[in-house]
Amino acid sequence: MPSSVLGGSVKSRRLIASVVVGAALVLGTSGCALVSTQATTIPYSPADGVNVPDRSGPLQVRNALIVANDEGTEGNFLAAIVNATDDAETLNISFGEGVAAATVRVPARTVVSLGIDGEEPIFVEGLDSKPGSDLPTSFQSGDGETVLADVPVLDGTLDYLTEYVP
Predict the structure, then answer these.
(1) Is the CB of residue 147 less than 8 Å from the CB of residue 140?
(2) Cα gap 91→54, rounded to integer Å
(3) How far apart are alpha carbons 142 and 82 in whole angstroms?
(4) Would you say 145 and 55 are in contact if contact means Cβ atoms under 8 Å apart?
(5) Separation between Cα atoms, residue 64 and residue 163, nearest integer Å
(6) Residue pair 147/51 in contact by the 8 Å Cβ criterion
(7) 58: which residues sit within 8 A by CB, 6+ positions away?
(8) Closest to 69 (Cα-Cα) out of 119, 120, 106, 123
(9) Does residue 6 have a pLDDT over 80?
(10) Distance CA 9, CA 87 (A)
C-alpha cells in the first residue's frame, strides 16, 4: 500500500481523536451549566423588601416591607414607588385580608420613597403578622391588574430600621 494512504489514514485518525478529546473536554468542564438555568438570570429583590411585578400597573413598587412592633399588631409600610410616566398615578394597596388599605398619589416622573426624604411611611393597624413573617399585600395602579406580593414583616433589629418601629 502506498505510504500516502497510510499517512492520510493516521492523520485522519489523529484529527478525529483530537476532535473527540476536545468535545469531551468542553462537555466535562462545562458540567451542568449547559442545561441548567444560570442563577444570575433569575430576577430577585436584592434588599430587605420585595419588588412588585410590573403588571400591577404603570407604577413600579420597589423594596416594599413592613417594620412592625414585637407583637406584630401594627407596623409601618416602607417602599419606593416609581412613576416613569408623564401623568400622575395612584397606587392602591391592600394589606392582608381586610387588615387595612391605602392609596399613594405619585406625581409624573418622580419617586415617592415612603419613610425617607420627608415622606411618611404608611401606618398599618390590626396587622396580626409578627416580625419574620410575610403579609400578603395587593397592589394596583392605572389599568394594571391587582398583583399579590408577600411583603416581609421585619422588626427593629437592624439599626437602620429601628426608627420605623411603631
Answers:
(1) yes
(2) 12
(3) 13
(4) yes
(5) 16
(6) no
(7) 83, 84, 85, 89, 141, 142, 143, 144
(8) 123
(9) no
(10) 75
Q: Are 66 and 154 in contact (CB under 8 A)?
A: yes
- What single string gives the DSSP state of each residue in the chain? --HHHHHHHHHHHHHHHHHHHHHHHHHHHHGGGGTSPPGGGS----SSSBPPPGGG-SEEEEEEEEEE-TTSSEEEEEEEEEE-SSS-EEEEEEETTTTEEEEEEE-TTEEEEETSTTPPPEEEES----TTSEEEEEEEETTPPPEEEEEEEE-S-SGGGGGG--
Query: Looking up cell 415622606, which residue turns up?
Result: 119
Cell of 141: 395602579
Per-residue pLDDT reduced to its tens digit, 100-144: 899 999 999 999 999 998 899 999 999 999 999 999 999 999 999
Check residues 12 and 31 and name the one with the higher pLDDT: 12
pLDDT tens-digit readout, 68-86 = 999 999 999 999 999 999 9
pLDDT tens-digit series, residues 23-52: 777 767 766 666 677 777 777 667 789 999
For the chain, what's the residue count?
Answer: 166
